[in-house]
Here is the input.
Amino acid sequence: MPRRRSNALLRSAALFTSVLAVALASCSVEATTTVAGRTTIVCTTAMIGDVVEEIAADDCDVVVLFGPDVDPHLFRPTRDDVSTLMRAAVVIYNGFHLEGHLTESLVRVAEADVEVVALAERSVEGDEILEDGGAPDPHVWMDPSLWLRTTDVVAGIVAEHVDGDRSAIDERAARVAERLALLDAECAERLSAIPAERRVLLTAHDAFGYFGRRYDVTVEGIQGVSTASEAGLRAIQELVALVVERRLPAVFFESTVSERNVAALVEGANAAGHAVRIGGVLHADAPGDAVTYEGMLRHNLETIVSALAPPSAGGEASR
Here is the structure.
């Protein structure tokens, strides 16, 4: 099971939440800002943007602020980015301090009468929220059974700001939720076929906590929840010992994180007499060449199963 435990007291996010709440409380959310006569919704991440684009369909324009290879932990807005946010009717961001460097801009946008919504914070609560070192883990999208809840929230936002048919909006939201539920079931089935002793996901940074809890996968990250943290030599040495002790066949790195630390871990394990390989590139904070949120989850599933399943399960891994 994952190492971390839930905690409803989200201490590290308290300052941002309170500041933004004050800003929101002081302004109206009746803005219906349009560009060329159409309502615009700005989303921070591609994971959010995919859900919003499908549910909104042609009823409005959806702009995704972060590119497919952008690390949201490190993103710093430009003047053009702030201008884009200011022109929106709604800005939908993840929350739980994922977009840490965007905080000041989001407060300014809220004060300018633009509705600002923290989608993950609106969709999960209490013991569902994982914690790492006193801070909430923002990577909620790694558990599709939780992320599918965002469809109801998004449907409500879209219906509030566009003239589209509410029943059609709800139908599109239901289709997205149904697909994610089926994908969740597939992940559970295929990952459970990997023997428990090999069901260990060791990655560059700790982005897979929700994934691990959902699918009973032990998750270890060289860095912490945020890629802004640094990996220490002691942490790498401890993980080398884990790899050698468990005879893990593979470790992974993520598309938005340098593979330097993972390469050091592989070198350390090999020096200790256990040959371990890099099992592939996973997508955690952005979809990369997987393009979409669902594509990202499927890519990760295939990569993990292929690398960790024993040789006898090769046919299942290549399914």
The chain is about 45% helix and 15% strand. The radius of gyration is 20 Å.
